Amino acid sequence: MEKYRGLSPAQFFHRNKEIAGFSNPARALYQTVRELVENSLDATETHGILPDISVEISLDPSNQDKVTVKVADNGIGIPIHEIPNVFGRVFYGSKYVVRQTRGVFGLGVKMAVLYAQMTTAQPIYVKSAPRNSEFIGEYLLYIDVDKNIPHIVKMRIKKKDNPKIHGTVVRLTLEGSWLQAKKRIEEYIRRTALIAPYATIKYKTPDEELIFRRVSKKLPEPPRIGRYHPKGVDVEILKELIRSLNDHSITLQDFLVKSFEGVGEKIASEFIVWAGFDPSLKVKELRLSDLEALASKMRTFDKWRRPRPVTLSPIGEELLKDGVKNILKPSFVKAVTRPPSSYGGHPFIVEVAVAYGGEIPPQDQPMVLRFANKMPLLYDEGVDVSRKVVNEIDWSVYKVKFPAPLAVITHVCSTKIPFKGVGKEAIADVPELEHELEIAIREAARRLRSYITRMERLHEIQRKEAT
Ligand code: ADP
Ligand code: MG
Fold it and tell me: Is this complex's ipTM strictly greater than 0.95?
């Protein structure tokens, strides 16, 4: 006889931790650092705060496989009553909105908590001082995996000494392989410093202490929370939006204009006529079959305006150049930020830098440094769209002869990055994205060609003068 039962989200990820990047002790340590750092960056720059982040990794003296990771930030903090859920409940967070952030799933830090409690049986420590609050909350908690709810071991609330301070400290201990992970983790931190040159990151490990000081105090314009674009809707999104309306008399016309991105009065009327709906129809009265027709018509109508990029926060050519210069120390760099584009109703912006010479080691193929929503992507390069585009370019057109000291830096910003998995390591080859990447890389590469030509001439002159 078969026995039937359900599985809680926490149980699911407990069983399938590999799909979130926690496949072995080295990878789990890397992923833990990554999830904590990314939350810290989201909590700062998304809210207009220049990030000050400290990352500390230490080993248990009696067992080197027990690794403690501590990350502290000066971010907006977490409302004290929300702390248990954001750290103790899989699929809980503040980023389920249309806005560019590193986090999207409401999963990352819970994976780290789960992995820590699975391997060392230790709870997570969180201390948070929310902005605009007089208090600081401190918790020790773990996840009740069966129920997918937080289990609080200890909590304490105290008054802030200085009402102006804000930020969060997270500390947890997991079974990890520091020896195997340290190179990747250091590389991850270096690349984070490259893409966020306005951040100061302190990095302390059993082997070294590094400080990546900000090279710029310019913060990119933070992303704003936007609305869905009609091209990206489905029946469930429509249901959710209609459910959230308080006004029962709202018409289809008003609904389209008020609830969606890229829809003005005129386009809304045009759409309604084209789709054969009655403009005075009350959306609260739509039946399921109407919603299905509406969603499908909305996706196929081709006159919507493109989504505006206010929900995005690219870093811009200047900061990208600063970051590349500071970390890679090349002799040439050209950065290109493309105008906004979109795929399936999701806005995106591609930024690219091509760097050459200097301290970049010569390699048989271009080095590719990939970023998505300001997150460095280190794994699964072989299946990523950026690698594909870079490989398809004939670099001899740009006078590059391999082995060459060439690095291509790609940054994709979107409210919906088409990742291939929840571990967020590789971006799928969406045609629109591929196209933008290619245009951007070629534009930067043309400048590289001029630079190489200039250098060749210079050498030629020097050679002649020498003889
Ligand atoms: P995600 O980042 O995808 O939303 P996480 O599980 O990593 O999911 O985090 C859950 C939520 O916890 C976040 O949405 C955020 O609201 C909050 N959070 C986590 N870490 C921090 C932090 N350092 N500062 C402020 N808020 C945080
Ligand atoms: Mg996160």
Answer: yes
